[in-house]
Amino acid sequence: MPNIVVVGAQWGDEGKGKVVDVITPHVNVVVRYQGGNNAGHTVVVGREKYVLHSIPSGILHPGCRCVVGCGVVVDPGSLIEEMESLVQRGVTLDGNLFISKNAHLIMPYHPALDRASEAKLGKRRIGTTGKGVGPAYVDKAARVGIRMADLLNEALFREKLELNVAQKNRLLREIYDAQTFTVEEILNQYLRYAGWLAPYITDTALLLSKWIDSGYSVLFEGAQGTMLDIDHGTYPYITSSSTTAGGAATGTGVPPTRLHGVLGVSKAYATRVGGGPFPTEMQGAIAEHIRGRGNEYGATTGRPRRCGWFDGIVARYAVRVNGLDTVALTKLDVLDQCETVKVCVGYRYRGDVLTEFPEDETVMAEAVPVYEELSGWLAPTGGFQLEAELPAKARQYLARLEELTGVPLCLISTGPQRAETILVEDSPLTRWFPSVRSSLP
Ligand code: IMP
Fold first, then answer.
1. Does 127 contact ligand 1 (Cβ within 6 A)?
2. DSSP letters for 40-82
3. Which architecture characterizes domain 104-200 according to CATH?
4. Considering only CA atoms, which of 327, 273, 283, 337 is closest in space to residue 309?
5. Can you give the residue ranges of every domain in the chain?
6. pLDDT band for position 405 (50/70/90)?
7. From ligand 1's centre to the CA of 273, what distance in Å?
8. Average of pLDDT values for 315-326?
9. pLDDT of residue 227
10. Which residue among 28, 206, 264, 296 sits deepest, i.e. has the most Cβ atoms within 10 Å of its Cβ?
11. Could you tell me the distance, in angstroms and rounded to a whole number, from the CA of residue 90 to the centre of ligand 1?
């Protein structure tokens, strides 16, 4: 049974949730491998709306086991809120939710440091979600982080907490002139969390290994997107985790040799939240139009997203660094009323035209996109079941994107509903999961 990684091929918010929802009925396990509650997606099941930040959306499919891997940073308060809301609505967590002992905790001083650091950075600020994700990964790398397993050992937890609170209070007071924390307050709060979470904390790497041995199929659900990867993204305007496919191995303990394929998710245009280079960013009326039609506001922070044209350089780079086998393209319908659609095929930089993503941040910041302009289709794309039924100009657009990325499309989404999905008949996705068609109306 295949173990497949789903990653964002742009700057996050590509619509991975919908793609994961289509695949989930055909796997036994869904795993989150990086990020924290900076991610967020809204899942609508019938009349119920669920907003999930840390728990894989697979939890809404009865019988699907969900794992929060060691690469994730967990805010236990936010996680428990999510769990309570699921339980109240009849979702069974026991036997379905497993949290890695090695996942690091987001502590109350992390969001405080996140906000204080952003304020200090001024015009170089990242535009973070303010959830403390970056500072939690800082502690992980600095080897002073506190992990899920520590919650189960009060003496060890207290010792690590005392060390951290002393250190962070100094930082908060002396560098940032911000409010400080007391050990007792955090200890009491986190011991209450420990009582709630203890039954779910386990050695998830071992569990995953046994499940894979027994023939289970695992879906690795990436959060954020390729261009926000700590190593491969537009550093320093990135999130602090490995959002690319390699993170699926390190963030779960499942070795790369047991992964069978990678599916990238990309919008038919592009968006980005927060600061950092975004060469194809649109301005003015067209940006407003796309933001409105695409409802481009952050699921976690509600911030308006920056909107841009499809960037073929970024797409090809995402194929390369993730080893994408195929791409699911979302939100094609958002472009339905555009008279022309632009696709970036190169970056002009000081007299040269670059056709590969420049890893140098100063080059990326000055890159001016070279566009190809295609004629818009000015017709609805929603509701079709077959690619052949789409307007001819929309098909030409898709063909050009396929040509630019060099990998086949496997799915085209033309709206939020399941019925608004076109499954490409013969693609890596249908080969991995031959019964995937049955998840669509
Ligand atoms: P952080 O992850 O909160 O540290 O934020 C770092 C950068 O990643 C900021 O530009 C955020 O807007 C961006 N970011 C974090 N999570 C998401 C996401 O789920 N979607 C899109 N952008 C995100």
1. yes
2. -EEEEETTEEEEESSS-GGGGSTT-EEEE-TTBEE-HHHHHHH
3. Orthogonal Bundle (1.10)
4. 283
5. 4-95+203-439, 104-200
6. very high
7. 7
8. 98
9. 98
10. 264
11. 31
pLDDT in tens, 222-257: 999 999 999 999 999 999 999 999 999 999 999 999
User: What's the pLDDT tens digit per position in 104-125?
Assistant: 999 999 999 999 999 999 999 9
Write down the CATH superfamily of domain 4-95+203-439: Adenylosuccinate Synthetase, subunit A, domain 3 (3.90.170.10)
Q: Which two tokens stand for residue 118?
A: 């952003």
Would the CB of 304 count as within 6 Å of ligand 1?
Answer: no
- Give me 5's structure tokens: 């990684």
Cα separation of 51 and 42, whole Å?
A: 4
Could you list the active site residues? 13, 41
pLDDT digits (tens, 9 = 90+) for 410-429: 999 999 888 899 999 999 99
Domain 4-95+203-439 shares a fold with domain 104-200: no
Above 80 in pLDDT, residue 45? Answer: no
The three-class DSSP label of residue 166 is: helix
Token digits of residue 236? 């320093």
Cβ within 8 Å of residue 9, ≥6 positions away = 225, 226, 264, 265, 266, 314, 315, 318, 319, 322, 324, 327
